[in-house]
């Protein structure tokens, strides 16, 4: 669910300024559709089921990983995406990135959105990172169902072997020609967006390639519009935006916290439990469908949609 407080505020301002007529004032509606959280939760149940029938995980080199890739790919193919599976080898096993392009918009101006699809071997990886994976998937499907006609080319990515050291995303960026790399205008990363004791973190543009500040502000703008305070965080080399940043591509993203502990100041502004980790099941077998906060999942998915509709216009 999306609360459009900003549009109300703008309409009221218009009335106070005497632009008057209840007839004319165009509502300044936030870009992007409401992504149904129930659809994301259904996807998480599917990823959980894939893990359960494949030894309890979806890790690189294990059958649950490729099953995850094939399942996401089938949904994208059915929606009309142009998909590609890029393979690579690491740790003695084949890994896979799944890349999906929406076949419209300017191929010389690409907006990329990604997250890692692999889990650790210890568990099914539902918050880390079924949440980002499923949210990106539902945003991609909403591009089709909404009839959005982006001016830019939208490219969605699900990375392999993140948990082994950002291997898939690094392989992808290194495999691009100089020209293809220069076509990517921005990269947004979503890794852990439904932590059970959530924080609302936006990747800081500080120290990132120029152009990153606009991405930070677009994501902050969404949370501001729904009245949710955010903090900036420096994810550094801990997720898949790192290879893009090294290549000089503007990066951004959101995050709801991992093994870090929520402070009392944070619990006051966000609710939840102070003195406890944002995700007590981080990298553990208990990272199941029970390990997801639906409110955080919902808000972050709508933030992704807002960013895609704004930056992809
Ligand atoms: N990259 C993460 C993982 O997969 O374990 C966790 C993480 C994400 C940590 C973002 C910090 C910031
Ligand atoms: Zn992880």
TrEMBL record:
Tell me one GO molecular function of this protein.
aminopeptidase activity
UniProt-listed InterPro entries = M28_fam (IPR045175), M28_SGAP-like (IPR041756), Peptidase_M28 (IPR007484)
Q: Which UniProt keywords apply?
A: Aminopeptidase, Hydrolase, Metal-binding, Protease, Signal, Zinc
Stretches assigned to the Peptidase M28 domain: 97-307
Q: Where is the signal peptide?
A: 1-24
State the CDD domains in the record. M28_SGAP_like (cd03876)
SUPFAM superfamilies on file? Zn-dependent exopeptidases
Broad class of enzyme this protein falls into? hydrolase
EC number, UniProt record: 3.4.11.24
The family annotation for this protein states: Belongs to the peptidase M28 family. M28A subfamily.
Entry protein name: Aminopeptidase S
Species: Saccharothrix longispora
């Amino acid at each position: 669910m999306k609360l459009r407080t900003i549009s109300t505020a703008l309409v009221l301002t218009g009335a106070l300024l005497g632009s008057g007529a209840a007839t004319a004032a165009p509502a300044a509606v936030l870009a992007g559709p409401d992504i149904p959280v129930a659809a994301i939760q259904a996807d998480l149940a599917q990823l959980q089921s894939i893990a359960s029938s494949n030894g309890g995980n979806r890790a690189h080199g294990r059958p649950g990983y490729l099953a995850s890739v094939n399942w996401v790919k089938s949904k994208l193919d059915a929606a009309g995406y142009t998909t590609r599976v890029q393979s690579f080898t690491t740790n003695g096993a084949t890994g896979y990135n799944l890349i999906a392009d929406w076949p419209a918009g300017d191929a010389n101006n690409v907006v990329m959105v990604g997250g890692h699809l692999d889990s650790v071997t210890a568990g099914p990886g539902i918050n880390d990172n079924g949440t980002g994976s499923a949210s990106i998937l539902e945003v991609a499907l909403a591009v089709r169902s909404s009839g959005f006609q982006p001016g830019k080319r939208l490219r969605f990515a699900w990375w392999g072997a993140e948990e082994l050291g950002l291997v898939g995303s690094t392989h992808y960026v290194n495999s691009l020609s100089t020209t293809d790399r220069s076509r990517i205008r921005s990269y947004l990363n979503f890794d852990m967006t439904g932590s059970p004791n959530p924080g609302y973190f936006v990747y800081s543009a500080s120290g990132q390639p120029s152009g990153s500040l606009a991405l930070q502000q677009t994501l902050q703008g969404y949370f501001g519009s729904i009245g949710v305070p955010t903090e900036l965080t420096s994810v550094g080399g801990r997720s898949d935006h790192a290879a893009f940043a090294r290549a000089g591509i503007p990066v951004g993203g959101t995050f709801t916290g991992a093994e870090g502990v929520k402070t009392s100041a944070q619990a006051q502004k966000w609710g939840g439990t102070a003195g406890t980790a944002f995700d007590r099941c981080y990298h553990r077998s208990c990272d199941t469908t029970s390990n997801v906060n639906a409110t955080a999942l919902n808000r972050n998915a709508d933030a992704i949609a807002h960013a895609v509709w704004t930056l992809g216009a």
